[in-house]
Amino acid sequence: MRILTTGASGFVGSWTSQRLKNQGFELVGFDCQPPSHQHYDAWHVGDVTDIDALTQAMAACEVVLHLAVLPQFLSIGDPVSDLRVNTLGTLQMLRAAEKVGVGKVILVSSSAVYGTNQGCLHENTSLKPTTPYGVSKMAAEAYCDLFHQRGHLHTTVLRLFNIYGLFADGSMRETVEGRFKKAVLAGNAPTIVGNPDRSFDFVHIEDVTQVISSLITCQLPSGLTLNVGTGTATSLMQLATWCMVAAGIDGEPHVLPTPSTDAHSQIADLSRIEHYLDYRPQHDLRTWIQRMIKRRTG
After folding, report:
1. pLDDT tens digits for 276-293?
2. Could you read off the pLDDT of 91-137 as tens digits, one per residue?
3. H-helix or E-strand containing 11?
4. Cα–Cα distance between 147 and 62 in angstroms, integer?
5. Within a domain: residue 51?
6. Amino acid 74: pLDDT
7. CA–CA separation, 6 and 91 (whole Å)
């Protein structure tokens, strides 16, 4: 099976390509920059809004994994580029896939589409995004559903919650858990910005790649949207404390208050993905933190 991955140089693309290559798939990468790893059989450098470049790259591909994205932290400062990459890029990908006759499209979206919603979030929860990124992802999902409704493409949307894990080369990411780990490895208590009781659903990158791998090989109804998380909430205070305990640092995390006092909490309802994929997350955040910190201090 031949698979095209857009945004192939990114964090999820790097990890997914390793798994899929080990499973014997033929991989084609598409990105705006040269490859950062050697897992692909072919590589196309191009703009995700260029339908001709996408069409050429998709030749003979049976599956498209759409990961191309402008990250959330850039969206507020540059909402036009965010819209261009995340929404127009998705539309052009879908048009190219329909033209080529691709058998299956997997769109990787984000829990950012839920926005102000709190608690345990089901895929049918109304979407209330609060950032340009969330809006552009919501629109991308709507286009995906449109092409599914037209009956010309088999589509699946994955709403990823907060992904954690190292880069594929073993380096740390500049995410909240990465910053907390960096602080304790330097012998300092982490600093929490805002309400320390804010909670998030952290899911390991290997659980995400397992879901993607399963979707490629199994037969599911078209048009599904699936949450990918753990169904467990971890507060920033818990996360910072776990890092300090693992590093043997006494005391408490620093808290830097902000005007907002919202103790925002979001976790993924996993009932749908459990039903369709028999999904069970295999990685535990606290265990992973302990292992990563001890590896660097031992």
Report:
1. 999 999 999 999 999 999
2. 999 999 999 999 999 999 999 999 999 999 999 999 999 999 999 99
3. helix 11-22
4. 17
5. yes
6. 86
7. 13
CATH number, domain containing residue 259: 3.90.25.10
Name which of 124, 128, 255, 113 is nearest 180 in CA terms.
Answer: 255
Specify the CATH number for the domain of residue 95: 3.40.50.720
- Residue 194: which domain range? 166-201+232-265+283-297
Angle between helices 285-297 and 176-185 (to 10 degrees): 30
Query: pLDDT at residue 36 above 80?
Result: no
**255 and 133 assigned to the same domain:** no
Mean pLDDT on 217-238:
96
The arithmetic mean of pLDDT across residues 148-174, rounded, is: 92
Q: Over the range 78-110, which residues count as b (16 or more CB within 10 Å of their CB) and which as e?
A: ebeebbbbbbbbbbbbbbbbeebebebbbbbbb
The answer to whether residue 273 is domain-embedded is no
- When pLDDT is averaged across residues 241-248 and rounded to a whole number, the result is 96
**Reduced to 3 states, what is the DSSP secondary structure of residue 112?**
helix
Residue 208 covered by a domain:
yes
Q: What ranges in 50-88 are assigned the alpha helix state H?
A: 51-57, 72-75, 79-83
Work out the percent of the chain whose per-residue pLDDT is above 90: 87
Counted domains in the chain = 2
Q: Are residues 147 and 178 in the same domain?
A: no
